[in-house]
Design brief:
Length: about 400
């Protein structure tokens, strides 16, 4: 699977480093060429001799190694790989990556590259859960860094929870996925997802019941087929998928701006449940109860992002997919909506409360296109996403 692939493996300084000789062995068994890099702290856990012996090449260890700089240089080193893998990715290394620090060989390589990066975090559960690490995770995901793990389990420090590094075979699977030559390789696809929040005042907002589950699954399925995905998401209940570029927004107007900034794209899938209206002039102070009765909220119409993208005069994505959440006359209403907005396909579904679809894990979709209405059996949102991604791949070739 990995024949001829060049992997730059950066080994961070955590106890999970003891698994990396095995990881190197497994990668090489599959034909990959592994160039190891050890941080100074990593050498406390695993020796350069061990790593060099299993990799078949001495590890790089020092930013200011004159021989290495003369032969190749750290810039060249970081660019000559097909994939950079960081395992274990410690809290410290992740913080450096998120901040763009470059004060040792590992962090400099990570900053000096535009090669895809996959990290396998490993740290104590409290370090993982700390808001600082969580912020860094969000930043790294937004930068398009892929994650494998961490797993939940017992740790070397005696605690239990998320923070264990994935096992070598799990990391190998993620490497294979990252390097897969999917049918959407080279295609840029924009996905909107989640609800939007429209402020009433600084502490209140209008929202809807969208969880973001379907849009998230679609972004993941497109990325799994090799697409370069920009994922514009409102405040969703589910975390964004790995391996996509995340742009987090709150309001419909912010979503429109993010979508415009992300174009051009080969395809756009608008799965977000965008609020149709916003409060015309949201108060910049908290509204107070008064004796004079309730505040009267005046509404203004939000921009229709799907319609705007569908009707672009120049630079329109080749395929625009909209969603139609309906509670009655699903096919008729959705078909009319698709025509009105000008999108190519509509994924229509019945979101009456009895269906449990809005916020649930399943979906029953009718795909409406020029070819007519095609009813898909009820299935998990992940399966809906995979089927849609396959259809998009077939349409874009
Ligand atoms: O008009 P309605 O909200 O039912 O249309 C649903 C479709 O339009 C979805 O694909 C949704 O993402 C998109 N939409 C949008 N901007 C809006 C409203 C809906 O992109 N303001």
């Amino acid at each position: 699977m990995l024949a001829g692939k060049r992997i730059l493996l950066i080994i961070g300084g955590g106890i999970a480093a003891y698994k990396t000789p095995d990881l190197i062995r497994r990668l090489r068994e599959r034909g990959a060429e592994v160039t190891p890099v050890l941080t100074r702290a990593a050498e406390e856990f695993v020796t350069p001799l061990t790593i060099g012996a299993v990799a078949g090449v001495a590890p790089h260890r020092d930013l200011f190694d004159l021989t290495t700089e003369a032969e190749m240089g750290h810039i060249q080193l970081s660019r000559s790989a097909d994939l950079i893998v960081v395992a274990p990715a410690t809290a410290d290394l992740m913080a450096k990556m998120a901040q763009g620090l470059a004060n040792d060989l590992a962090s400099t390589l990570l900053l000096a590259t535009d090669t895809p990066v996959l990290i396998a975090p490993a740290m104590n559960v409290r370090m993982w859960n700390h808001p600082a690490t969580q912020r860094n995770i969000a930043t790294l995901k937004g930068d398009g860094v892929g994650f494998v793990g961490p797993e939940v389990g017992n740790m070397a420090c005696g605690e239990h929870g998320p923070g264990r590094m994935s096992e070598p075979l799990g990391i190998v699977a993620a490497v294979e996925q990252a390097l897969a030559n999917g049918p959407l390789k080279g295609k840029h696809i924009l996905v909107t997802s989640g609800p939007t929040h429209e402020p009433i005042d600084p502490v209140r907002y209008i929202a809807n019941r969208s969880s973001g589950a379907q849009g998230t699954a679609i972004a993941a399925a497109l990325a799994a087929l090799g697409a370069d995905v920009t994922f514009v998401t409102g405040p969703a209940d589910v975390p964004p998928p790995a391996g996509v570029r995340v742009v987090a927004v709150q309001t419909a107007r912010e979503m429109l701006e993010a979508v415009q900034a992300a174009l051009p794209a080969d395809a756009a899938v608008m799965a977000a449940a965008v609020a149709d209206w916003r409060v015309a002039s949201a108060s910049d102070r908290k509204l107070k109860k008064t004796r004079d009765g309730m505040p009267a909220l005046e509404f203004a119409e939000n921009p229709d992002i799907l319609a705007q993208v569908s009707q672009m005069a120049t630079g329109r994505p080749g395929l625009v997919v909209g969603f139609a959440a309906e509670t009655n006359d699903v096919v008729e209403n959705a078909t009319a909506k698709g025509k009105r907005k000008g999108c190519d396909w509509i994924m229509a579904n019945d979101v009456s409360p009895v269906t449990g679809i809005m916020g649930g894990s399943e979906n029953a979709v009718i795909l409406i296109s020029d070819a007519g209405a095609e009813e898909w059996e009820r299935m998990g949102k992940v399966d809906v996403a995979k089927r849609l991604a396959d259809r998009i791949a077939a349409a874009l070739v």
